[in-house]
Design brief:
The chain is of the alpha/beta class and 319 residues long. The protein has helices spanning 3-9, 39-59, 71-89, 118-130, 149-157, 165-173, 185-188, 205-213, 236-242, 288-312; strands at 93-95, 106-110, 137-141, 161-162, 177-180, 217-223, 233-234, 248-249, 269-272. Strand 3 (137-141), helix 5 and strand 4 (161-162) form a beta-alpha-beta unit.
C-alpha cells in the first residue's frame, strides 16, 4: 500500500511513515529518524544549563555569603544528589510544612540520630523540596565537622556554620531559617536499643539565641534515621584512638567494608510542629528558668510527635 493510500484511510495524519517504508533501525523512508517534538530541545537545554554553570564557576561569577554559603552550588549539585536518597531510597513523607514561615527567621529544632548525620541533610532537602518558598536551611554543626579539611569546606558551601549563639543569632536576624540538633553526638551516636528516645538537650543555648532575636522555634520530629545504620555497639578505645566521639558497630559495618556505609532503605517521615513564639519573651533571654521551660517544652513536643509518627509507620522498611 502506498503512502497516499494511508493518508486517504487516516485523514489528518499526513506526516505518516507506513510500516513497510521504515527500516529496522527506526528511520523513515527518507533515511532520517522521525522527529519527536521536545526530545532534542530538553537535552539541548540541559547541556546549555550545564555549560553555563561551568562557565560561571570557572569565571568566579557566583555569590557566596559571609559564612561561605554557595546557593548555586547547593541547588545545582548537592541537592540533586541528596534527592536520590530523599525521594527514591528513603521515600520521605513530609508533614506540617505549613508551620514553617514563608518569610523571616526561624529556629528549627530536631531530634538527632542515625550514626551518620544524614537526618540533617534530609531535613534541608525536605524544606527546599516541599516549602512553597523553596527556603534554605542553615544548619549549625559541631566543631568536629569544621576541623575535617574537605568536610569543612563542603559544609560551609552547603550553608552550615559552627554551632554557636553569635552565628545563630546573626543568621536569624537576617531572616534565615536555622537548624539545630541539641542532642548532638549523644543523639546521633546512641545505640539502636535506645532508638527514638531523646537524649539530654544540653544547656538550652538554642533557646537563648531564639529569645534574643524574638525568633519562633519550630520543633521537628524525624522518623527513619534510626534504622539506616542500626548501632549495636560502640568501640570506645578505637574511637579515642581516632579522635572521634564514637566508633559504631552495625550489622553491615565494619564487616562489609565500604559497602557497610550504604544506608538501609528505611521509610522516613518528617513532621514540622506548630511554631512556639518567642517575641514576647526577649527580655528573658538570660533567665535560666525561662530557658529551661522552653527547652523542655520543645523536647516534649518532639518526643510526643515521634511516638505519633511511629504509630503511623508500623513497618520501618515498608512503602
Amino acid at each position: 500500500m502506498s503512502q497516499e493510500d494511508y493518508r486517504r484511510l487516516l485523514p489528518g495524519h499526513t506526516e505518516f511513515d507506513p510500516p513497510g517504508e521504515a527500516s529496522a533501525n527506526g528511520h523513515g523512508a527518507n533515511g532520517h529518524r522521525p522527529h519527536r517534538p521536545g526530545a532534542v530541545d530538553v537535552w539541548d537545554q540541559r547541556v546549555a544549563r550545564g555549560l553555563a554553570f561551568l562557565r560561571r564557576r570557572l569565571a568566579g561569577a557566583y555569590q557566596v555569603d559571609d559564612f561561605g554559603f554557595d546557593p548555586e552550588l547547593t541547588d545545582g549539585v548537592f541537592y540533586p544528589m541528596l534527592k536520590v536518597l530523599y525521594r527514591d531510597w528513603f521515600r520521605t513523607e513530609v508533614l506540617g510544612i505549613e508551620n514553617v514561615p514563608d518569610t523571616g527567621g526561624g529556629l528549627l529544632v530536631g531530634n538527632h540520630s542515625g550514626t551518620l548525620a544524614l537526618d540533617a541533610m534530609m531535613l534541608s532537602v525536605a524544606l527546599r523540596d516541599q516549602h512553597p518558598r523553596d527556603r534554605h536551611l542553615r544548619l549549625l554543626g559541631a566543631d568536629l565537622v569544621f576541623r575535617v579539611p574537605v568536610l569543612s569546606e563542603l559544609a560551609r558551601k552547603a550553608g552550615a556554620t559552627v554551632a554557636c549563639n553569635p552565628d545563630a543569632e546573626r543568621l536569624m536576624r537576617t531572616g534565615e531559617l536555622v537548624g539545630v540538633f541539641p542532642e548532638g553526638f549523644k543523639g546521633v551516636g546512641k545505640r539502636y536499643a535506645d532508638r527514638y528516645k531523646l537524649q539530654r538537650f544540653g544547656r538550652g543555648g538554642f533557646v537563648s539565641a531564639a529569645l534574643r532575636t524574638g525568633t519562633p522555634i519550630i520543633p521537628v520530629a524525624i522518623v527513619g534515621a534510626e534504622e539506616i545504620y542500626p548501632m549495636l555497639a560502640d568501640l570506645k578505645p578505637l574511637a579515642r584512638l581516632l579522635g572521634v566521639p564514637y566508633f559504631p558497630v552495625t550489622p553491615t559495618f565494619p564487616w562489609l567494608g565500604p559497602l557497610g556505609l550504604v544506608p538501609l532503605p528505611s521509610k522516613w517521615m518528617i513532621q514540622f510542629c506548630p511554631p512556639i513564639p518567642t517575641a514576647h519573651l526577649t527580655e528573658f533571654a538570660d533567665d535560666p528558668l525561662v530557658i529551661y521551660n522552653l527547652s523542655d517544652q520543645v523536647r516534649e513536643t518532639i518526643q510526643t510527635t515521634l511516638h505519633s509518627l511511629l504509630e503511623k509507620r508500623p513497618d520501618p522498611f515498608g512503602p
